[in-house]
Design goal:
Length: about 250
């Protein structure tokens, strides 16, 4: 009897260039973390005129009149939000722990405890960092609006656009989060059996659409927030000038 061939979806082959993703992850994560530590621990100022660096927003330290390492008060929220992100976990488990390093590639022979013990077990705190990050995103939108306010008059510079795109990308990243998707649509067995079913169902579908691109938003927003901070930093140092159109 002729052997039935396996469905295409089960024909696993080793992608010859499987290594590029873990290498890209290691290089970009390492560079991002080193840059973030330098920004947080080496600077006491994150504002240039009406532009506020995303690492220094909201200005908690300013409200409390803290002038030493003010970014420390806020930067831990988005950084831990990213560090505990389900998508990033997949990426850095593969890239840094090689558990496994890629699909169809053998794991390294050693005991793997998964997320059953600290510190990896603390990743379950992700949902709480999500709640805090939503607050941070609200302040980033306020900063984006303020970036178009030049001493009480509407204006636009390159920095205005940089901070606006930053708020958009970080919103896409935050609201495509798996924990947010569960928040709006989870713990329900039936969308039509409780109060306001349509609203939650509609929200869940919208968030699910965003969630499919969560990995993409994760990378783009990470590079953009990095670039936005660097832009404000270079303005503060006088290395560059902000082009203004009106
Ligand atoms: S799963 Fe990535 S931010 Fe929540």
């Amino acid at each position: 009897m002729a052997q039935a061939s396996a469905p295409a979806s089960t024909k696993r082959r080793t992608e010859p260039r499987w290594w590029w993703e873990p290498v890209f992850t290691v290089v970009s994560f390492t560079a991002f973390v080193v840059y973030s530590l330098w920004e947080v621990f080496a600077h006491n100022r994150g504002r240039y005129a009406n532009y506020v660096s995303p690492y220094f927003s909201p200005d908690v330290a300013g409200w409390l009149h803290v002038y030493w390492l003010p970014a420390l008060w806020v930067a831990w929220v988005p950084l831990l939000f990213r560090a505990t992100c389900y998508y990033y976990r997949r990426e850095y488990y593969r890239a840094f722990f090689q558990d496994p390093v890629a699909c169809s590639i053998a794991e390294r022979p050693r005991r793997y405890a998964g997320e059953t013990r600290p510190p990896l077990a603390w990743n379950y705190l992700h949902r709480f960092f999500l709640y805090l990050s939503i607050v941070v995103v609200a302040f980033l939108w306020a900063d984006a609006v303020a970036a178009f306010d030049f001493r009480g008059r509407f204006g636009m510079g390159l920095g205005s656009l940089v901070l606006l795109v930053n708020a958009v990308l970080l919103s896409l990243y935050t609201f495509s989060c798996h924990a947010f998707r569960h928040w709006v649509g989870g713990s329900l067995d039936c969308f039509t059996c409780r109060g306001r079913p349509r609203l939650r169902y509609t929200l869940w579908r919208r968030v699910s659409d965003l969630n499919r691109r969560h990995g993409l938003f994760a990378w783009i927003s990470m590079f953009w927030v990095w670039g936005a901070d660097l832009y404000v930093r270079l303005l503060i140092q006088g290395t560059i000038h902000d082009p203004r159109w009106f």
